[in-house]
Amino acid sequence: MLGTSLLVVPNLAFAQANNPFGINTTPRKFSIVNSFVLEPSEDLAQLWIPLPLEATYQKVVRISYEGNFDEAYISNENPFNTKILYAKWEKGTQKRELTLNMDIVTQERSVNLSQASNSTHYSDEVKEYLKGTKHTPVNDTITAFVKDIVKNATTPLQKAQAIYDWTVLNMYRDESVKGCGVGDAMRTVVDKVFGGKCTDISSVFVALLRNAGIPAREVFGIRVGQSKISNACGKADEKGFANVSGAQHCRAEFYINAIGWVPADPADVTKVRLAEKLSNEDKKVQDTKAYMLGNWEMNWMAFNYARDFVLTPKPTQYPLNMLGYPYGEIGEDALDYYDPKAFSYSYISQESL
User: Fold this and answer.
1) Which of these, 4, 92, 104, 133, has the minimum number of CB atoms within 10 Å of its CB?
2) Which secondary structure element, helix H or strand E, spans residue 3, and what is its range?
3) Which residue range is the domain that position 79 belongs to?
4) pTM given for the model
């Protein structure tokens, strides 16, 4: 059975950024293939696959899908307007297969922090990202915690810089954490255990910003190509091919008036530091830290901002913590999206060099 195909003509416009890594504004094109083979079962099988969002820094050129599903469609009927491919296989023993093909064009994302306004008046749409969620709460405990971090800051950007500095200097990457981590900011602050993976680090960053009155959100996505910063931030072979089945990565954004959404990635600073056995004083860590506030290297594809929400159609298990990975159920049992082989799925990416 063939699915629909979505064709979009890319229209890219980006800002030039100075950086020490040789990252430039040349567009990058990636072809990504997501393959799913669910095991035979007498139970109903359902699959929800996150799709890339449309943004100034990435354009979706093509999406198509095919397989032996009984029903499949693309929808964004959820609180975060998150685009999802939903597929369903009725009860039966046949092997359930689906292949998703995507072409995407990206380019380095950069903003000019010198344009920041001191205004704290936000639109209703932006105010949504001042509200607390289960995993990034706004409450007296975290508000008191962040007040000490931003005590010498007066403007929103100064507060954001102080929170970013604290996050990078105090949090660390813990390789024992499964997948991207749970991202429970309250537990991190209360227990004062500042280790984790990208979702844990980004969620603490976002929670601190919201409790300081700065709109912020996590952005879930996946690495799709070679990084010029470090292999820890994405790698591919000499022909631009990469198996990215386990390359999901969570970044963050915060809102500053007169600039808009500011990209940030404190988690990758901690990853470079650990992977290359460096300290905070090493020049590469300092350069990475400076670059990762206000810039994103776009060897990465963004999916959505969704946290603690209910998928459509409603699955057996809800709400979902995040949608950076595919989510699937066979009968009433959720598949382990942290384990591509057991799920089973594979993601591959080919960059056009």
Assistant:
1) 4
2) strand 2-7
3) 12-108+307-351
4) 0.93
